[in-house]
Amino acid sequence: MEEKNNTTLKILALDGGGSKGVYTLGVLKELELKLGIPLHQHFDLIFGTSTGSIIAALVALGYDIPAIEKLYFELIPKIMSGKSRAEKSSILKSEADRIFDGKKFDAFKTDIGIVALNYDTQKPLIFKSSVKQAHGMVHSFEPGFGKTISEAVQCSSAAYPIFDIVNIDLINKESKTNVNLIDGGFIANDPTLFALIDAHKAFGKQIEDIRLISVGVGEYIEKPLGFWYNLFHKVNMVKFIERVLAANTNTNVLVAKLLFPNLKMIRINDAFPEPDYGTNMIENDLNKLRKINSLGRGSFAKKETEIENLFMQ
């Protein structure tokens, strides 16, 4: 497999899905072994939403996948066992602050996009690493809006009402704007389209010069979320959220294929309808998480030949 070059732009796009991000890591573990190098050395641009933003940030900082898996298997049970959204949000913040240790977007080893949603305007807001990704107003561009990586991934992962809405000040050079942000999954659970816009419009790459791998979190029978979340289900709140995330993922995949029929792209996101694999976005059972992780590795195996061909084209 070749490393980065100036001809093709290689993109990795990672879906949101809470605990189910362990499936993504199963796929990426096999991909990294296949490439024989850390993923940040191969991909030019990495986009992530929600749990995908956390994985994307760690990859772009230079972490290898086994190290990220270790973190995930430690952190998911801790975060998702929180008894309230305030407790979950507090644990997520403290752990993200510890792991990312105050680093800002200049610490990334490859370009990145972290997708959130502006709750006030209902418009996407994407934390980006490079002025090359700016679509206008380049003179006022500030990497990551001046925020830390921890703050960005918290915004992208704020799946209200499971997590708190995040209030934050965004910085562009000498100006500051206060906004309320929520999980990017409500606007682009699959961030592929936003990544392609950067590649085509900002980086100036033609579609035939782009290679893209989009990785989901798998599709499962949704198991109940517990007593209080079942209470929300009675008013269709959480059930509605789950459907919104799934619907916009499916829409973005379809739109990407329709808009860019010649795009050299692979989508990895298998369905597992067996009851034994039933799970949800706040899964905290370690045995179930390891099982989901192994499903991701199996999904990679199904696409391995296609992936090899993708990067040989």
Task: Walk me through the topology.
Layout: E1 9-14, H1 21-35, H2 39-42, E2 45-49, H3 51-61, H4 65-80, H5 85-100, E3 111-118, E4 123-128, H6 149-156, E5 166-172, E6 175-183, H7 185-188, H8 192-202, E7 210-215, E8 219-220, H9 227-234, H10 237-259, E9 264-268, E10 271-272, H11 286-310
Parallel strand pairs: 1-2, 1-7, 2-3, 7-9, 8-10
Antiparallel strand pairs: 3-4, 3-6, 5-6
Helix pairs in contact: 1-4, 1-11, 4-5, 5-6, 9-10
Unreliable spans: 231-236
Look at the helices and sheets and give the structural class: alpha/beta
Helical segment tally? 11
What separation lies between the terminal Cα atoms? 11 Å
Query: Which geometry do the CA atoms define?
Result: globular
Describe the overall structure.
The chain is an alpha/beta fold. The chain is built from eleven helices and ten strands. The protein has helices at 21-35, 39-42, 51-61, 65-80, 85-100, 149-156, 185-188, 192-202, 227-234, 237-259, 286-310, and strands at residues 9-14, 45-49, 111-118, 123-128, 166-172, 175-183, 210-215, 219-220, 264-268, 271-272. Strands 1, 2, 3, 4, 5, 6, 7 and 9 form an eight-stranded mixed sheet that branches. The chain is globular. Residues 231-236 have low confidence and may be disordered.
Structural descriptors:
313 residues, alpha/beta, two-stranded parallel sheet, 11 helices, 45% helix
Give a quick precis of the structure:
This protein has about 325 residues and is an alpha/beta fold. It has helices at about 20-35, 40, 50-60, 65-80, 85-100, 150-155, 185-190, 190-200, 225-235, 235-260, 285-310, and strands at about 10-15, 45-50, 110-120, 125-130, 165-170, 175-185, 210-215, 220, 265-270, 270.
